[in-house]
Amino acid sequence: MSFTFNGISKPYVHVTLDTNRPMWAPVEREIIEVPGRPGGILRNTKVKPRSLVINMTIKDVDDLQKAKEEIAEWLITDKPAPLVMPDEPDRTYYAVLDGTGQLDEFYKFGKGTITFTCPDPYKHGAEQSFIIDGSDDPNNNQIKNGDFREGKGDWYSTSNIGEVVPISSDQVKFKQAFEILQPGIYLNCPFDGPNWWRGKKGYASCWVNIQNSAFDSSKGNGAMLYFRATKASDGSYVYFRDNVRLTGDTNGWIQLSFPFDFSSLTEELSQLYLAISTAGGFTVVEAQFTGFMVTLTDELTTWLPDGTGHVQSAGTVPTYPIVECTFPEAASSYEVQLLNDDTSLKAGISLNFDFIAGDKLVLDIANRAATLNGEDKRAIYHYTSDFFQIPPKKDTLIRATQPSEIRFTDQYK
Questions:
Q1: Domain count of the chain?
Q2: Which helix (H) or strand (E) holds 108?
Q3: Bridge partners, 275 (sequence order)
Q4: DSSP labels for 359-378?
Q5: What CATH number has the domain bearing residue 320?
Q6: Interatomic CA distance for residues 259 and 299, integer angstroms
Q7: Distance CA 334, CA 349 (A)
Q8: Across the chain, what does the average pLDDT equal?
Q9: What number of H helices and E strands is found in the chain?
Q10: Are 232 and 117 within one domain?
Q11: Residue among 285, 310, 327, 292 at smallest CA distance from 391
Q12: Greatest extent of the chain over all pairs of C-alpha atoms, in Å
């Protein structure tokens, strides 16, 4: 069996059975010894380049010396190239030849040892690809800024009444909510492209906290979570409502949710929005709303911010991703974020630029590189950008402000 280097293998080069490879790259520990204290303190860990020693034979050639020249041309490269061993076809090392190649020669037969050095100490496995913020992803939250982390953006209220306020509760993970302190106020989030929603099915939900309220049933049947669609032909409305009505204090945070089915929406629409209110009979009210979510799933799912998806590396060490985005519309910035399990920000990358529809942005995070339509644009990275890696063996949340593809290669110790 022969190995493959730089995409090439030679039928007359054979790896011998006595070739052994180290289980992992060398690990060097820096231990600080403290006088009067047993043992020491681990100060630093360094993973050093990996060395691969290959025992090989050359046989079945007409001219051994010419074969040696051909092997030298094949194996001596200016930079690391992919190396795949015959007994490990699903792993790739990135290696350069190191040292001399000495052979014991007998006429047209040669036996010897060559050494590769891998500056990147890790093995590379399969390439993974994930779409983030895809409109047809059933798990994607279609509500923008559903937890008000970006203030009032994308939301509208009657006469602009109400404020985004910080909250802290053991009942919910959200850090902000939209607060309304008077009755008769409507809060809504309109959808772009309302006709895209015709025929869609899914779940809508939000979290509500009402206190210090008074309710008059003669003035209404209670507030609710609902969709309102407007027909383009005559301006008439079609409602899709939650059956649960709010008629008093909630005694803490509660979640409202209901399944929706827009199969009956067959006409052209001019508007569609999700809304909730402090109307429907309240005469006094202090209300907070947050955690809005609309998905195309068959059941209620765990809340995620808009533009958030799951990625997972099957490797055993962190790996840098490549991010690719083709802008569907103009934008003045772009962000891609690594989130904690509670959806809070762990690390994020920001770029400020006047993007137009059709622009193709590619971020090579490992090399801090950025190209826009093939042109170098690394200068548009915001100085606060934190160039993150995808952790191994973990379901990881990634959020992007535009539909994006996240690609990375699984890496192994």
A1: 3
A2: none
A3: 188, 226
A4: -EEEEEGGGTEEEETTEE-G
A5: 2.60.120.860
A6: 8
A7: 8
A8: 94
A9: 1, 28
A10: no
A11: 310
A12: 106
